[in-house]
Amino acid sequence: MIVGGPNLRRLVCAKLVQSLSGSGEAEKINEMRGLDRRFSIAPMMEWTDRHCRFFHRLLTRRALIYTEMITTGAVLHGERARLLAHDPAEHPVALQLGGCDPQQLGECARIAEEFGYDEVNLNVGCPSDRVQVGRFGACLMAEPALVGDCVAAMTSAVKLPVTVKCRLGIDDQDPEEALEAFACAVEQAGVAALIVHARKAWLDGLSPRQNRDVPPLDYARVYRLKAAHPSLDIVLNGGIADIDQALNHLGRLDGVMMGRAAYQDPWRLLAVDPVLFGEPVPFASPKAAAEALIPYIERELTRGTRLNAMTRHMLGLFRGIPGARAFRRHLATEASKPAASVAAFRAALALVVDVDAQMAHSAAA
Ligand SMILES: Cc1cc2nc3c(=O)[nH]c(=O)nc-3n(C[C@H](O)[C@H](O)[C@H](O)COP(=O)(O)O)c2cc1C
């Protein structure tokens, strides 16, 4: 372990990367950096809440998982304890912040550290009108110096790794120039990793949803960024559909981040530990993982959480398995009833045919 504060650690790690590059020691370097970023699950508003994260953690022990974006205003002035609550089982878990004020971001990073998060991430990718009004999210691609100041304020406030999630550029920016200027600014400010959603954001004329599909993906631009910044950890996001594709990108980049494919088909996550990390699968089948969630569901129900708030994240778990549709239908009618109990979940599960780990794996690959 390298001691001596985040900046010294980063410098030593950068030197190590240079001296070890090509010798296949990336894993050790990641360990020294403290977090393994080879596979992460994207921050997704309304989706990656604490129930979703707990569920995903059952399916993979090794993925780095992200919260939904929480604005600095909400952290500083909102219901902080509720917004930042997470279960100890979620680790490693990163808090994603939305904001553009260096001082406020520094303070929020400090609060994230106090709450026990493993990483704090700044959102420079969200294209919604609401965040544009607040001058944060994707529109910050046009202000690399300000983002550098934000990152510097965050890194000096905490020991936690500070990361940024960005786009290739916005509107009519040239992705070659815009992404290069942006990467230089955050690298100099001490960012621990840059996560790049490999498409531009169009702030004028496209909805947030269209902005996830319409601007074309350009993975080659991200590969060129890595070649130009060999000691900066670069994680690729956008359109990664399965674990095979993830594995391919890992040959060229430090990590991959999967969003919709992980959420909509969570069974894929069972392949992450064995295929990407060479470790045992956490559960032999999707059904075994779902059964393991029952104690959590019971605990949360006694705290007043509605059954549907937890089960809504599981609708794709059994895709392709006999009984999957009956499972979804049962939950759709039963889990949203105000008094729905764990019995409704057990009954839905009983409709699904169990399959062994082999089937889950071959489907995932
Ligand atoms: C429902 C939804 C909510 C999202 N919310 C956020 C968010 O809070 N912060 C963020 O950085 N990206 C957010 N995104 C974008 C994803 O993190 C990711 O960049 C995008 O979906 C592309 O990755 P994918 O093709 O693997 O899904 C969201 C995406 C979806 C589908």
Explain this structure to me?
It is a single chain. With 365 residues, the protein is of the alpha/beta class. 46% of the residues lie in helices and 12% in strands. The chain is built from 19 helices and 8 strands. The chain has helices at residues 5-20, 26-33, 50-59, 72-77, 80-84, 102-114, 129-133, 144-157, 175-188, 219-228, 243-250, 260-264, 272-277, 286-292, 294-302, 307-311, 324-334, 342-350, 357-364; strands at 39-41, 64-71, 93-98, 119-124, 162-167, 193-197, 234-237, 255-258. An 8-stranded parallel β-barrel has the order 1-2-3-4-5-6-7-8, surrounded by 6 helices. Strand 6 (193-197), helix 10 and strand 7 form a beta-alpha-beta unit. Helix 6 (102-114) runs parallel beside helix 8 (144-157) and helix 8 packs parallel to helix 9. The two termini are 35 Å apart. Residues 1-33 have low confidence and may be disordered. Bound molecules: flavin mononucleotide. Flavin mononucleotide is lined by residues 42-47, 68-69, 96, 123, 125-126, 165, 197, 212, 237-240, 258-261.
